[in-house]
Amino acid sequence: MATNNMGPYSDEVMDHFTNPRNMGEIENPSAVGEVGNPACGDMMKLFLKISDAGLIEEATFKTFGCGAAIASSSMTTELLRGTHLEDALRLTNQNIVDKLGGLPPAKIHCSVMAEEAVEMALKDYYKKIGKAESLVDDLKAEIKKERGE
Ligand code: FES
Questions:
Q1: In degrees rounded to 5, what are phi and psi of residue 6?
Q2: Residue of 42, 64, 70, 76 with the most ligand 1 atoms within 8 Å of its CB, for mutation
């Protein structure tokens, strides 16, 4: 992890915290994923614009939470933009942490909230297009099996 005068936070975390990307709402989103973290009371809302071909064209967020949650949300929207739905399902909180140059152990759960928001948004999308939400759970389980988790 890069060192700076911001304690345990990497430069990348500080950059996304102080200059969050894609913050706000999308008008008429294709999907919305909302999650709350019962441990700390923080909340994240993710908005997606998805093309008919299943491509995530836009991803934005609104997060009420700590700096690590804001940085994780911001990074997540960056990682989602331009990806296909199925690739979005492959995004793990560890990918987010890696892209942020690491998070302190006590802040890993903040990145988990972002992964869960993606999952909730994709469930919302499947529901809207008339598919079973459980398809997301099935695909996630399949991906985990592939990874040997
Ligand atoms: S402390 Fe709640 S999400 Fe970070």
A1: -105, 35
A2: 42
Residues with CB under 6 Å of ligand 1 are 37, 40, 42, 65-66, 68-69, 107, 110, 113
Domain limits of the chain?
11-141
CATH class of the domain whose range is 11-141: alpha beta
Provide the whole-model pTM: 0.93
Asked if residue 4 has pLDDT above 80, the reply is no
pLDDT, one tens digit per residue, over 70-114 is: 999 999 999 999 999 989 999 999 999 999 999 999 999 999 999
Residue that wins the pLDDT comparison between 121 and 5 = 121
Give the pLDDT confidence score for residue 8 in this predicted structure: 87
